[in-house]
Design brief:
This protein is of the alpha/beta class. Helices cover 29% and strands 25% of the residues. Its cofactor is pyridoxal 5'-phosphate.
């Protein structure tokens, strides 16, 4: 059976490195938990780190977080859908918003629940995912400031989420200037300027960060320790908090080349056969995980001599080269994972989850 493992000690080490970094910079930050898909076993480990804030893009996940820790501050980090308004007010202390009509619905619901719901307005900085345009900023805030049951606490932005636009000092200065404009126009200080995510961390280390940007939302760096500018792991952090252990369910010497008339497989792929492959054989094994759970491009074998050949819905075929250690049916092969690999496995109901030390 395939098993996704979370290493408790490595997760804690990554958290401590980030906490130290932000503490020195005087910046608050929230842990982004959407990767965990609301799994309570793994959420408990994250909450045991004692983060001040947890951010997620699914209401069901925020409900699970509040059930585990009713006192922790929760943030809904995408524009709310109409059908989710009631639950967002109930389970999210803060929400990120880009639509005036949506904030009006949040206002009405907050009053019904006798709450004050906090909002951060997201602004477009060029990546062209969510965010209002700069020329609409003043009018937008003017309308939101009038709403009852709503407290506007900040401004924020996302980069590198759709078109790969990387953060830069100029982009962050632009966000800081928008904050200053709102403060000056309306005579009040926005509490939160949320301009940081994992992709922005290298700029913080290089001291290219405007002082007014005071909030980060961190997921990928916590779970993978990754510097998205270089693709390498940050010093002192771990890239293998998560690992997949997949069981070998078949192990056989087989020909390299398929036999018969070739057509497209269920994924729409038609193999290309090299002439020399018809005379070759290789040791192949099948592991009990497939495309239903993960795209093989998001997993990397931990051991030498293990090469992924292809996948079907619930099996992945692997070639074991001469460099591979001896394996037997029933043993497991371990894989390191990228963010999207863990996300697929977390979303699969067929994958067992486990916390290890």
């Amino acid at each position: 059976m395939a098993l996704l493992q979370m290493n408790r000690a490595k997760l804690r080490k990554n958290y401590e490195v980030l906490e130290s970094k932000f503490d020195k910079a005087g910046i608050s930050w929230g842990v982004v938990s959407k990767l965990l898909c609301g799994d309570k076993l793994f959420l408990k480990e994250v909450l045991s780190l004692k983060p001040k804030q947890v951010c997620d893009s699914r209401v069901k996940n925020l409900r699970a977080i509040k059930q585990l820790d009713p006192e922790i501050e929760t943030v809904y980090i995408k524009p709310p859908a109409k059908k989710s308004i009631r639950n967002i007010v109930q389970f999210a202390d803060i929400s990120f918003n880009t639509e005036l009509r949506t904030i009006r619905m949040l206002s009405e619901e907050a009053q019904l629940q006798c709450k004050t719901h906090k909002v951060v307005i997201m602004i477009e900085l060029g990546d062209l995912r969510e965010g209002i345009l700069g020329e609409d900023l003043i009018e937008f805030y003017q309308e939101v400031f009038r709403l009852k049951g709503i407290r506007v606490i900040g401004i924020g932005a996302n980069l590198n989420c759709l078109n790969g636009v990387m953060p830069s000092q100029d982009k962050l200065i632009q966000l800081a200037l928008y904050k200053n404009l709102i403060d000056a126009k309306f005579g009040q200080q926005l509490q939160l300027v949320s301009g940081g995510s994992t992709v922005t961390l290298p700029l913080l280390s290089k001291h290219k960060f405007p002082k007014s940007i005071n909030h980060f939302r961190i997921g990928e760096a916590l779970y993978f320790g990754i510097n998205l500018f270089t693709g390498k792991t940050f010093k002192g952090m771990h890239g293998d908090v998560f690992q997949l252990r997949a069981e070998i369910i078949e192990l056989t010497e087989k020909p390299f080349a398929p036999v018969g008339v070739l057509g497209a497989n269920p994924s729409g792929e038609t193999p290309e056969i090299e002439p020399g492959d018809f005379q070759k054989t290789g040791l192949r094994c099948i592991i009990d995980v497939g495309l239903l759970d993960i795209d093989p491009k998001f997993m990397t074998p931990c051991d030498k001599g293990v090469e992924i050949l292809g996948a079907s819905s619930d099996m992945i075929v692997i070639e074991l080269t001469d460099d591979a250690k001896p394996y037997r049916v029933g043993e497991t092969i371990n894989f390191n994972l990228s963010y999207m690999g863990v996300l697929g496995l977390m979303a699969s109901k067929y994958i067992e989850k486990e916390v290890i030390e």
